[in-house]
Design brief:
3 domains, Pyrimidine Nucleoside Phosphorylase, Chain A, domain 2, alpha/beta, binds uracil, 4-stranded antiparallel beta sheet, Transferase, Pyrimidine Nucleoside Phosphorylase, Chain A, domain 3, single chain, Aldehyde Oxidoreductase, domain 3
Length: 433
Amino acid sequence: MKTPVEVIEIKKRGGNIAQRDLKDFLAGYMQGSVADYQMSAFLMAACIRGLSEEEVVVITRCIKESGNCRPKENFGKPVVDKHSTGGVGDKPTIVLLPLLASMGVLVPTLAGRGLGHTGGTVDKLEALPGIKQQYHWNEAQKLLEKNGAAFLTQSDDIARLDKRLYALRDVTGTVDSIGLITSSILGKKLSEELDGLVLDVKYGSGAFMTTYEDAKSLAELLVKISTLMGTVAKVLLTDMNEPLGEWAGNGVEVMEAVRMLRGETVEPRFYEVTISLAEAMYQLAFPGDCKNVREKLVAKLQSGEAYEKFLAIITAQGVESETLGKLDGILAPPKLAGVLRADRTGYVSKVNAHALGTLLIKMGAGRKVLSDKIDHKPGLRFLKKRGDKVEKGEALLEAYASKELELPQISEIYTITDEEVKLPPYINRLEKS
Ligand code: URA
């Protein structure tokens, strides 16, 4: 059996760790014989040197087996979930859960907290006072039976290893590894005992994979390992070269998702990405019923059924019924603390979404160290998007915060050019998935 230092050394030199040694190393971490600092060193070596497919499969299995799997009672429904590889303003999950549940799909979503410069569904939903998302599977099954969906996360019973690795990667700069992302996502998702999984693999300045090619490699590995482990996966590759939607933060993103659930008009790309993911989930759930899927989904949003389902889900998860009528106030941002204005006339051609995610962390919306508590209030509002024409002095972004705030220079975030900007398609499909 290799010592922790020997395992780290193998990865540091770019070698492959034998299955047995990697399993022992991960088990040692759970039992306390491998320390956080040793795991951090391993994660950094894995980020820099990469992981072989065999190593990814071992880590995925260890994450899945570090907790229990969902009992195989599906209440007569197809079981489908979605997971995103992470981005800024990435809130579709909050809409998809109730929307698909209102269509008769069982959606046992295991989501995560903020990771690196990106926000996490679990942190966002904690803007709702009283909400509980850590459950054992036997309790989660009761929620699923009642409402058809539950907002869940890693717990003592579910993907325990990912709970610890995820938190460590968040604060050690060790997120952007194709192998670590794949094992983290699939280790969780495969414990849900799904009939199908939709993956939203993001590329661009706000994603962990900044190039389309790297995102495609991540997507291919996700599909390969998911299929190998028995779950059908479908991928949408979506653009994360700017934050998704009008808002980024925690409470403000829940507010934006609530607006979509209420059938209100929301930022078109957020709407389109969300509806496209919903269509893909529905098609996996009901492969024999592929006609007018979009119309059916839109009808659930416009009739208020999806929103009613959202309220039922959060109430079952601990949000007091008196809170439901006050959601707009609870989720509203604090005061306007700063505005970024165009320094010239032209077209917005580039947005540094990574820098915006980092700004949100500085505003308290994410963690700098493991013990940081999230502030659910602050948020950024994007008034102009890529491709928009702007006049010198026009507001591009508003920052809402309860504390003093130093905004970055405009040139650190926006590039404005004279030429009109033609944007490539922002939703792409992976052939063969
Ligand atoms: N989502 C996850 O669950 N894990 C990752 O590593 C990245 C995104």
